[in-house]
Amino acid sequence: MSWPSWSVRDVVTGRPRVRVNQVGYLPGRPMRATLVSDEPEPVPFLVVDEGGRPVHEARSHPWPTRPEPTSGLAVHVLDLGDLPPGRHRVLVPTLDAHSHAFRVDAGLYRPLAADALRFLTLQRSGVAIDDEVAPGYARPAGHVGVPPNRGDTAVRPWSGPDAPRLYPGWRDDATYDVSGGWYDAGDHGKYVTSGAIAVWQLLGAADVLARGPRTAAADDLRDRVLDECRWQLDWLLRMQVPPGRPHAGLAFHRVHGVVWSPIPGPPHLDPTERVLHRPSTGAGLHLAAAAAAGARTFRLADPAYAARLLAASRCAYDAALRTPDLLAPDDHARHGGGPYGDDDLSDDRYWAAAELWLATGEERYAEDVARSPHHARDPFDERGFDFDAVAAPARLDLALHGRTGPAAPLPDHDRVVASVVAGADRLRAVQDAQPWGQPYAPADGWAWGSNGRLLNNLVVLGTAALVSGETGYLDAVAAGADHLLGRNALGQSYVTGYGTDHSRHQRTRSFGQDRDATLPPPPPGALAGGANSQPAPDFPYDDRLVGLPPQCCYLDEPTSEVTNDVCIRWNAPLVWVSALLSLNRA
């Protein structure tokens, strides 16, 4: 395979040739780096401490495939050994090459977990952001029914010119309070099928923290995670169609402006009229799954709230069974928001049934789980799960929680656990075949939001660690995080504020300082979508990326929507993974 020669030159220029996790490494976990070099033989390298004293010396391992397919680069892998705590740097004297400075510290991921979570707080709709919560990011509440928009407190279902074609036979003349929740991405839309899996990830992060050592810091972080979960779950409940209205029990698929809001622009200045799009079966099933998971999480701390969530979940599930094929049409993002469509809801039913069984132990849900074709299938592959592929979330929770709880143990729980471990083993095999440490290298290219998909693969690996007790899976999680934080073809940390060469110019409306100096920049902990080498047939791609190797299809520019957007569905698994690594149980 060959790539344009200029692409390799552009990638290498301006970044250290030794790619490391620019934040650092955890004691007792793998410490590896990648050297960009076409030298055919091993080369000597050393690691020096802050005072310049050598603490490790070894020789590189040239990667046998040249160029390496995902990056288009010739590379070597460097094993940095087991470095002591402190600040370090890698030097390759014969090539005059070096790395950024990095730390070895057991507490590296605690601040990242907190900042990744704070990003979700800053995405809150319908509430003012206090400067004490995030200095420099204070703003009035957005979409609360005051000019220049009518907000989300009394929203009408959409009746625009295209509505009869997209939603034949649907008409609803009521108004609904759908305030609250998180803005989904760099826009001001709110989407049930994106928001449900994001809050499910956070509920999982709370569970991860509960499994770790009880410390004041871990308890504080868990409390804040649960507070964010509750904020989003409350919004999901408001999106449920009430009795007596068309498609009662399901959830409205999305709420946003009739046209895309101006970019940049904070939510309280959004001038667009907000509308609700028709309920969908998929949205109802995602509501059912997330609310049931929430009911399980809050059962002891707030039984009344858990009961409310569980009632909504049951209602949504039953409504989805009555109306099994009300799909969200793909309007190609022409009406002010993304479609979040999905034409196969069998996995969504599996996920909802699994969460309801875990929350209730009732036989009807156990039967639905067992009857689902997905229960016998393998839901894990290197492309990673997402909002439109949710059999994996079902399997992960069945493995984690299927032995205890209100139900008798899942009859085939051992098989379910084994399937998670087998899926994790395949991801480790993918990871071992990469010189960059990532368990993600799909042959058909890197998808929009590849960083989120990669993180979801790390969640699979982390879950395998939790259900098996094998620390090798935690090693794999740590190595995958290295890739996101700088050990990649671009030498780019994709998390704002973390690393030396980190993403700074994500495409967002609220954090649009690149285009309007009165607005704040993206906050620390905001994850960029990442490399995207898959042009979509119905969405403009970036011509500057055409012909580049998959890993190199990224631009840290506010104009690059297909690579540099932000999304709650990517930051939520970043919280999960950072929370797990913050425990650092060697």
Automatic annotation (TrEMBL):
Residue ranges annotated for the Glycoside hydrolase family domain, each copy included: 109-577
Keywords linked to the UniProt accession: Carbohydrate metabolism, Glycosidase, Hydrolase, Polysaccharide degradation
GO function term, MF aspect, one: hydrolase activity
Family matches, as Gene3D superfamilies: 1.50.10.10, Immunoglobulins (2.60.40.10)
SUPFAM superfamilies: E set domains, Six-hairpin glycosidases
Domain Cellulase Ig-like: 15-90
Family in the record: Belongs to the glycosyl hydrolase 9 (cellulase E) family.
Listed PANTHER family: ENDO-1,4-BETA-GLUCANASE
Listed name of the protein: Glycoside hydrolase family 9 protein
Source species of the chain: Cellulomonas fulva
Upper lineage: Bacteria, Bacillati, Actinomycetota, Actinomycetes, Micrococcales
